[in-house]
Structures are given as structure tokens and as C-alpha cells.
Amino acid sequence: MYGGDEVSAIVVDLGSHTCKAGYAGEDAPKAIFPSVAGAIDQMDIDESDNAEKNSVSADKAKGKRKLYVGSQSLGYRRDHMEVLSPFKDGIVADWDIVDSIWDHAFRECLSIDPKEHPMLLAEPSSNTQQQRERAAELMFEKYKAPALFLAKNAVLTSFASGRATSLVVDCGGGSTTVVPVHDGYVLQKDVATTPIGGEFLTDCLMKSLESKGIMIKPRYSFRRKEIRPGEFQTVDLDFQNTTESYKLYSQRLIASDIKESVCLAPDTPFVESAYSNIPTTPYELPDGQTIEIGADRFKIPDVLFNPSLVRTIPGMESFAEIVPTVRGLPQMVIDSINKCDVDIRRELFSSILLAGGTASMHQLKERLEKELLEESPHAARVKVLASGNATERRFSVWIGGSILASLGSFQQMWFSKTEYEEHGASYIQRRCP
């Protein structure tokens, strides 16, 4: 069996918004970069000739596009570059992009040879058997990793807080998921999920600002020129061949920063009239203009608690039809606990863990606890736990993986390359339940 003490394992958490990678045993990931890729089709380049020679369709597909991964590569605007996510509904749909993200993490960010390190990969609770086998194939066949382990996000978050049983509320970029974990196992049938995550809130904020006439200029679309010491003039630049998806990606980066800087969850449900005279908060955009943000600071975070607020945001009408099917965060928590076995409900109510990037929002923990206290049974002791450190909330899945992979008692759990060669990819179901 793999004896993993000499070489430290690598922990990779590929989230819907950011990829985190680093060495097991450390307290924060070394590499953090967006989990999207810039793609340029190269069909018009001579590679189409080579593609005809290689009858393998995979080579053809790869010849068709060049992928750019990492904050620096994506920060540089290129003609006709589309920004693509490998995920669809929280599950990997494009393995080429995942491959290039892993490759970037190992070779560019960590500068390691994957052949020498066992790999612990975090996976969503909803991951299918097919996805797990595909991940194992890629790790063993392409990267030649000596050993692999797949662990559920929620279990790792629970681990990071030192608990074996908890209810994990993971507010990620692409969705928010409520997952009961009992004795280190996910209770699959009681998982609740909603498409309202960090990126959805960012889009709500962008549309709301646009309706007030505030357009966010992407960083590539202007240049600032100093006309007098301390005084700048903004010169607009026009790039005809910039794709819509790249423009949106660049705008989202700025809108996301506005959201993280000024938004806070209101103490009570948001009512437009109560916030109409609220003092505004200034925010300086990259092009130098200062905008004032008023009620939106409270309204946008409240969408997590009350999804029907989406209907009042101009430009978000396309999401209005999903609203009736989406429940607010407190309701999801209570429904998920009520589906669980009666014996563990008390314990789940008293250890609700907040995790994910969106969970770092100010006052989110206090608001969730307050609403749960009002709606839960009187006998329940409601306790919402969230690390006081925003970095730990954001990276709790990765930190859990880092703790797990460095435990001595975990070393016999690895799914080794020898086992893979002997039993095939499907054996991962037995090794990583």
C-alpha cells in the first residue's frame, strides 16, 4: 500500500469559481486562480491539415482551440477569446478545460511532477460515478499519479472544523448547497441545492447598477493618462474583436469586488421603502469614477434569503421563472434537517457550518442564525458556526483536504496506481465511498 510520509500529497479543490491547489499539511493553498479558461478556436490555422492526418477525434478537438488558464493569461485581452467554464449545473462537462486547469496548477503554480505526489481531489456531493471514474482515468493515465483519493466537499469542510457530524451550508460561486454529514459520510438523499451562488449575486448587482445608468468599464477598454500630477484622464480604447463572454468576465471581476467590499446581509428581510433614505457608500471604479451604492448593499445579499427579490431587479427577468422553485437559505436548511433521521436532527441544528466564498459576506452568519431560531422547533439548539477568519471560510474545503491527507491513519486509504491497473477505474467507488 502507499506509504505517504516521505512525499507530501497534493490537495486540489476545483470549485465552480476558483481552483485551489497546494501541499497537504499546509494551512492555505499555494495556488488560487479562476476555474475558467480562455479559448480561441484555431480552425483557420494550418492545424486543420494535421487534424486530417490524425484520425483520432480527441486530437481534432484539441487542434481546434487553444486554452489559456490562470489569472495572468485571462487578464490579457485577446481577439476572439471566449471565456468558458468546465461546469454545467455543478458537474464537469468539459474535461479538456479541467485537464488544462490541473496542468496549470501542477506545472506552472506548484512546479511539481504529478508522478511523484499522491493526489487528493475534492468533489461536489452530487458527483456521478461516471465523473469519478473519468477523474481517476485522467489522474492515472495522463498524470501518472502514484495514488488518488476523492473526498466530498462537505466532508472536508466538516473535517476542517473538527467535526464528524454537521450540516454544511456551502455558498459557492455557482450554487449554494446544504449537505448533512453524519460520521464523515454525506447523507446523499437529504442534500438541498439552489442555483443562487456568488456569481448569481454578482450578476444581480451588475444589472441593478446598469438600471441606474452605471456601466462598469472592463479594465482593457480604457487607458488612464496623467495630464497633471495627480490628475488623470481616461482614454477609451476600442477593440472590435472582443467576445461578449470575455467582456462579461472582466466586468464580473470588478462587480464581484464591489459586492465583497460594500455588501452586507441585512438584519431583517429587505423592504425597499425602509432602505430608500439609507446613507450611500462610495466605491471607486478602475476608470476613476466614483459611484455611490445605497440600498443595493443590502438588497443583493438578501436574494439568498428571499429569492423572489430577483423579480424587482431590472434585467434579471430571465431568472424570474426559476424563482418559484427556489427556496431561501433558512428554508433549505430546515427542510434538509427534517429529511434526516430524527436521532441526528438535534446534532445537526447545533453544528451548522458556513463555508464557501460567498459565506464571507458580512453579517451572513448572524442573519442566518436569527432566521433559523425563529423558524426551527423550540427544542432545537440552533448554532451557526463560521470561522472568524475569512480565508478559512473561503478555503475550508481545501483546508479539510490538507488535514486529511496529512494524517498518518489516512495513508492506507489511498487508491493506488497498482490497484487502478489491476481493477480498473470503477474500483474507485470501493476505495472512496
Automatic annotation (TrEMBL):
Entry's localization field: Cytoplasm; Nucleus
Keyword Cytoplasm: yes
One GO cellular component term noted in the UniProt record for this chain: nucleus
Keyword DNA-binding: no
Keywords assigned: Chromatin regulator, Cytoplasm, Developmental protein, Nucleus
CDD domains: ASKHA_NBD_Arp4_ACTL6-like
InterPro entries registered for this protein in UniProt: Actin, ATPase_NBD
Protein's GO biological process: chromatin organization
Family: Belongs to the actin family. ARP4 subfamily.
Summary of the function given for this chain in its UniProt record: Involved in several developmental processes including organization of plant organs, flowering time, anther development, flower senescence and fertility, probably by regulating the chromatin structure.
Entry protein name: Actin-related protein 4
Species annotation: Lupinus albus
